[in-house]
Amino acid sequence: MATKTYAGVNVDVTDDGYLTDPSQWNKDIAAEIAREEGIELTDKHFEVLTFLRAENDKGTQLTIRMVGKSGITDIKGLYQLFPAGPLKKSSRIAGIPKPTSCV
Q1: Residue at 99 is within a domain
Q2: Percentage, residues of the chain above pLDDT 70
Q3: Mean of the pLDDT values across residues 84-93?
């Protein structure tokens, strides 16, 4: 486990860069993680991130299909928002653990 500084806040992260404590997350931290991924966050990104965080809080196992059925965006839109690994990237940016469905 390592510590990284995002938006002036020291947070604990896994070796893959996922926050170990989702309560340390905020929108500024999300924006900095997204920049590392080459993504500039929009309101639509934050809608997806909010959905992921809420579902994670419920203990729901996250899948790309679930996000596609959320009504926020379809699967194609999710890939456009978070290219090359949409669920992995969006989960990392959302400050939640890496979904078990992601390799």
Answers
A1: no
A2: 97
A3: 94
Handedness of CA 61, 14, 72, 84 (dihedral sign): negative
> For residue 37, what are the domain limits?
2-94
Active-site annotation, residues: 102
Residue listed under structure tokens 């940016």: 93
Domain membership flag for residue 100: no
Q: Give the number of domains in the chain.
A: 1
Task: Judge if pTM exceeds 0.90.
Answer: yes
Listed in sequence order, the residues at least 6 apart from 86 whose beta carbon sits closer than 8 Å to its beta carbon are: 64, 67, 78, 79
Q: Is residue 101 part of a domain?
A: no
Of the pLDDT bands very low, low, confident and very high (cuts 50, 70, 90), residue 98 is confident
